[in-house]
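Possible regression after last week's pipeline update?

I re-ran a chain I had predicted before the update to compare outputs. Posting the input and the new output here so someone can diff against the archived version. Not blocking, just want to make sure nothing changed silently.
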Amino acid sequence: MAVWTLGLNHTTAPIDLRERFAFASEKLDQSLQSLRRSFASHKEVTILSTCNRTEIYCAGDAVHLPQTLSWLAQTGQTPVEMLRSHTYWLEGDASARHALRVASGLDSMVLGESQILGQLKTAVRLAADSGVLGTTLNQLFQRSFAVAKEVRTATDIGAHSVSMAAACVRLASRLFENIKDTHVLFVGAGEMIELCVAHFASKSPRSITIANRSAERADVLAALHGGTCMPLADLPRRLHEFDVVISCTASTLPLIGLGAVESALRARKNRPILMVDLAVPRDIEPEVKKLSDVYLYTIDDLTEVIQSGQSHRQAAVVEAEVIINQGVQKFMTWLDQRSHVPLIQELNLQADAWRQTEVERARKKIEKGESIDCVLESLSLGLMKKMLNGPLRELHHKESLQRDRASEAVKHMFLNSST
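New output (post-update):
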């Protein structure tokens, strides 16, 4: 069985390319089925899609990376050659190592962040629910989860970590003299926004407002942090009220357009606005960045802020890599052992056929009135002859090299084993 990975992430592809390959969770089942149908034979598949990466994990009888790339390019309506230059191709132990590093937070923009582990678990669950996960990929990911847990327990990989949410607060602190004097708008109510709201709430801004399609989720989040809610439809009309706008939704189209921001600036008399777009695809039209008095940051722009604490964790990275290497070796050993499963199954079937044949003969002897001792002697002798027939034939092979190999195998399997 072979495993392989095709992916693009924040280090290999810009956001305007990554957003073409963002898979919405509600459509992931359809995408998984389409991906598996793109192969000529049965394959195991899983798709991990986050704001920083899109990765396809596959397992099958042989590696099929070109077909995987073609499917992804077609899905994102992008020329294959263009996509090829922004992707990474991994197979075998390199694919396994990558999965373990991703789960452990070593391949993230925020080194050591834990959110990716939850996202990977969700991707695996969706693949399992769609019936496309399979034994090999399930084993790979379960080992990834176990290694990630060990890395977080045994190392300080998460220490000094600057999260996306914390980075947003730092940006606001750079632009505004006192966050307590700002009005903050959050667009969306998912996990990332929940983290951002919590970080900003700790700084006690003048107001917190949440705009989300689902009023129920927004109400719960607002109540938790003393904020208020507003309908998404009111965004263009009320945008001028806010000094800081943090957006992260699953929308496939921008929610905040250039015209709305221009109108807001006029109403604010050109007082600055900090806008942070954490969504992929983006929630805020990229042209907004060209406006004066608007400080628009995408998820890729946060790199400098996030990496400020990276140097403190390099020793932990070395320790984590040791744990990951051990995890890779264990998985590859399991994978190699899996290649012998068909032979083991065939051997078991043959041995069971011998057993059934001798048991049937024994029953017939009993029916004829033969003694139990005679029947048992005959049964055991019949099994012994069947078991030794192959080895004895090889030990009498006409080629001496074949006889020597058979001799070593017989000694190892029969004469050196404990009884």
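Follow-up from reviewer: compared with the archived run. The longest strand covers residues 2-9. Marking as no regression found.
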